[in-house]
Write a structure and sequence with these properties.
132 residues; mainly alpha; N-utilizing Substance Protein B Homolog, Chain A; 6 helices; globular
């Protein structure tokens, strides 16, 4: 199991990509171009490249799943970092249901450190609703 520091690094990597493009849809192409680059703070492993490529392929469906769970919020109102955390950990939960509590815990801890004060509650609530 990856440690929490590695997940934070992956979230930062995706945030950097979002800042350049405004979305995560084509992240897979960027991942393979960047995997051996020293321009980033992390070097992605082959497994991480493959995982982020698959995440990129499924991003639109994941986004729609999250949007369907938002109550009194719109996707546009959700911050960029929150979108990335929600999307990535939704992906992780969908593909590894048995570790859902771990992924929710990591997402909440990352959001407590990097997002607005009460954001972790929204992230916890949405991830908790992802099908078990």
């Amino acid at each position: 199991m990856k440690d929490k520091i590695r997940y934070r690094a992956l979230i930062k990597f995706m945030y950097e990509y979002w800042q350049k493009t405004g979305d995560l849809t084509d992240l897979g192409d960027f991942v393979f171009l960047s995997s051996n680059s020293t321009a980033h703070l992390i070097t992605l492993t082959k497994v991480e490249c493959e995982e982020l490529s698959k995440f990129s392929e499924e991003y639109s469906q994941i986004k729609e799943k999250i949007i369907s769970l938002l109550i009194n919020w719109t996707w546009e109102r959700v911050g960029v970092l929150e979108k990335i955390i929600l999307s990535y950990f939704t992906f992780k939960i969908i593909h590894d249901k048995k570790n859902k509590p771990l992924y929710v815990d990591i997402a909440v801890k990352i959001s407590k450190n990097y997002c607005k004060e009460d954001t972790f509650r929204i992230i916890n609530g949405i991830l908790d609703k992802i099908e078990k």
